[in-house]
Amino acid sequence: MKKQILAVAAVGALSAATAVPAMALENEFHGNFRVRGILSNFDDGGAGAVNLNGTNISQATGAVVKTGEPNTNTYIEQRLRLMYIAKANDNLKLVTHFEFDSRFGDNSYNSNNSFRNNGGGVGADQTNLETKNIYLDFNLPSTPMNFKVGVQGFTDAYKGIIFNNDAAGVVATAKLQNATINASFFRFDDAITVPANLTGAASGYLDAAAVGTNTQVGNLTRDFYNIGGKYNVSKDLSVGADYYALYSDVLKNLATPRTLINYVGANAAGNVGPASWSGFFLYQFGELGGNFVNSAANPDAASLAARQIKRQSVSAFAANLAGKCQAGPGTARITALYISGSQGTGGDKRTDFQTIDERGATTAGHTFFESNSMLFFRHPQATAGTDRALVFDLNNSGKGIITAFAGYDLPLGKAFVNTNVGIGAVAKDNKNQINGMSKSGDSNILGYEGNVEVGYKVFDNLTTSLQGAYLVLGDFYKDAAANGKTPDNPYTARVVVNYVF
């Protein structure tokens, strides 16, 4: 019934928008073109967490590595994001957003049977158009209501740690005098022939072969709900509160328990003199259902032979505090994030914060871009196929994360210098592997990162920059590689050309 009501509401919102007479359109084109040249033992043109289970981090487990001569990847990639907006009037527009990715020399003429993130090979001709967004954006006449209906980008009010990605859904927003109220519904999965992840990769391993085929559209789904608001107490203080829910029954054909994860949070932001601050507290509770099978990455789970189908209760939390302030000619920044972990992920109760992934467990649907990390966390300038991070999924194999980053942004006329340093550790240790490795020492420190970007604004909308980052792995990884050695420290160096129009 809940699904039917939401579907009817979405159709009603769409019908209200289409009851408008034909008129001339105002056409808008916007976009971003970015080229990155990369030299790294970390970035490799792929996405997801990096496997450190070798002496050299960019090589597969068991690969032969020359001591003192780690492999270095060198490549160039590009991304074009193109936005077209068909604007009927100030209250109605259609927004479309497309993406073209390729790596120099990768492929042409569809010869590798892969259509996305390709087309940089000799001859070039390639079918590589990707659809990011297609949605209707309209204001309801005589009301403070705005609706966005369709495939769109969505970022939660908690700096993206719940969900920061594109999905098909409906978002309703009401702007009042000093308050904003919003509600949203997204359908992440309508599983037909393949399973969808219930939550993060650490939340259980699904038996993909046993899912079967769903012949009824809307029967096996993974849905996301949100209602929340923000109130401006004064020009220097705003507060907000939100409720989010992730519901999944994609495996109910197997009589597997359904998943319902609830998020209740409060956030605030303000100014104190020349400084500004922001932060949040997020509590998570609910039940996680799934087919838990034994694997090297999750030894706490039930054995495959036992075929245990059970429900786990979840009680977890996340917290953040950040600030920035004018300091001399530049701006100083600091942010800290805590994501709770669990001593075990195979029992009836879990305290690790459940995260949201895309349909593939190696692709996170959430982020923490506020860190400005280039190696430890995902970076907002990910281009083409490159999207690597030491901690790609904030659940971190059920261990959670404790991290703090500080930085300084220095403008120098048309030039700029941005620097950042940070540290990260697991919040709670358990037997699960991370980065393909098990902890060998007593330390929970994952690593220390330092990065810098030096750039120059050639034109108002064209920027070039040099980026460099180095991550000193903590003692968590000491002597933990398959050959008994400590993995090489990750590094990356990038030349970036960025055009915004």
Question: Secondary-structure blueprint of this entry?
Answer:
Blueprint: H1 2-18, E1 26-40, E2 47-49, E3 73-89, E4 92-103, E5 130-139, E6 145-155, E7 164-175, E8 179-190, E9 221-234, E10 237-248, E11 259-272, E12 275-291, E13 309-327, E14 330-339, E15 349-350, E16 387-389, E17 401-412, E18 415-425, E19 445-459, E20 462-473, E21 491-500
Parallel strand pairs: 2-16, 13-15
Antiparallel strand pairs: 1-3, 1-21, 3-4, 4-5, 5-6, 6-7, 7-8, 8-9, 9-10, 10-11, 11-12, 12-13, 13-14, 14-17, 17-18, 18-19, 19-20, 20-21
Describe the structure.
- The protein is mostly beta strands and 501 residues long.
- The protein has one domain: Porin (Beta Barrel), CATH 2.40.160.100.
- It is built from one helix and 21 strands.
- It has an 18-stranded antiparallel barrel. A two-stranded parallel sheet has the order 2-16.
- A hairpin with a 3-residue loop joins strand 7 and strand 8 (179-190).
- The two termini are 45 Å apart.
Keywords:
501 residues, mainly beta, two-stranded parallel sheet, 3% helix, Porin, 18-stranded antiparallel barrel
Shape: globular
Number of strands: 21
Uncertain runs with pLDDT below 50, 5 residues or more?
60-68, 194-212, 293-308
Structural class: mainly beta
Strand residues, percent:
over 45%
How many individual helices? 1
How many structural domains?
A: 1
CATH fold-level label? Porin
Signal peptide: 1-24
GO molecular function: kinase activity
Protein name: Histidine kinase
Keywords: Kinase, Signal, Transferase
Sum this structure up briefly.
One of its GO terms (molecular function) is kinase activity. Helices cover 3% and strands 49% of the residues.
